[in-house]
Amino acid sequence: MRFHGTQVAAGLLSALPGAQALLRFSCSQLVVERLDPLVNPGVVGSPPSSPDRRWRKFHEAINAFNASMDPAKLDIPGTATCTTCQFADDFSNYWTAVLFFRARNGTYHRVPQKGNVFFEQANGGMTVYYTPTINGRGKVTAFKPGFRMIVGDPMERTAAGAAKYRQLTYTCLQNSMTRTGETKNLPPKPCPAGIMANIRFPTCWDGVNLDSPDHASHVAYPTSGTFESSGPCPSTHPVKIPQLFYEVIWDTSQFNNAADWPADGSQPFVWSYGDATGYGTHGDYVFGWKGDALQRAMDQNCQNDKCNGLGSQSLQQGNKCTVKTTVDENIDGWLDELPGGMKVTDASGKVVY
């Protein structure tokens, strides 16, 4: 089934009840490996001792992705030969951490991803949204070549600390259409259709810097309300940018046997950077649309995975875009520890297991 029409979009995006236009499209999985070119540029195999300690799943732009992602090389589309995304003009890089299941016996297994509703044929990956306006109010300025950002903090382990990231949540999927009941923590009970990680980025930009030392302070949230409620941008970040939003579906259904869960009944899923709470969830972005394609899409208020003047490709074509791993390690099957020797820690930094 193809995704089209605002009626379906409104049903899926309960957080955007009045949205009249948005891009919603699939980006298949490019590669799964322990690299982080934003925080650990040039390092093959993000080390457990790094300040960020992320273990990554990358999506899209086969030749544009590498361990360093040199910010001086702004022409990402010019260095890539394929994209995993449905929009053929999009060579951006989208990535998140990887979710693992920790069994009662202490071993770990990587949780696979699956295609989102209406994108079931995608090879995992994520659904990407760009929202230009809400109810037709105002305009947004598309990201510029060289733009990159991170939202969330992988070191966070508390609800209070995670509160500053307003819209990083999880949905315990009862079925593929579930879009209610978002939580800030990982769901504490089995989810029949999997766990969906919802990652919404800040929507205000300082208008000058394409990046910042922490990859976050050049962007900000509205001073009040949200992007969806047309909240105003702060004077320090006056430029309204599209709301970038990831939906990543983790197929946890194969791990729903209560006999395999911890004896105390606690939830068994752990992020690859050593977080069993879920409060450290985060996402990364490196802009890579060709020319002014994204700005044209935002100005046109394009809908879903079709937009006049923008090239497109099938999910099957996107699935074919892959890249070989550069980190030589076992990531599949049952593991005695998280890749890279990552330890699971609590709010105080104490090793839990």
Automatic annotation (TrEMBL):
Presence of keyword Signal: yes
InterPro entries: DUF1996
Keywords: Signal
DUF1996 domain span: 36-289
Signal peptide (from-to): 1-21
Protein name per its UniProtKB record: DUF1996 domain-containing protein
Superkingdom field: Eukaryota
Pfam families given in the database record: DUF1996
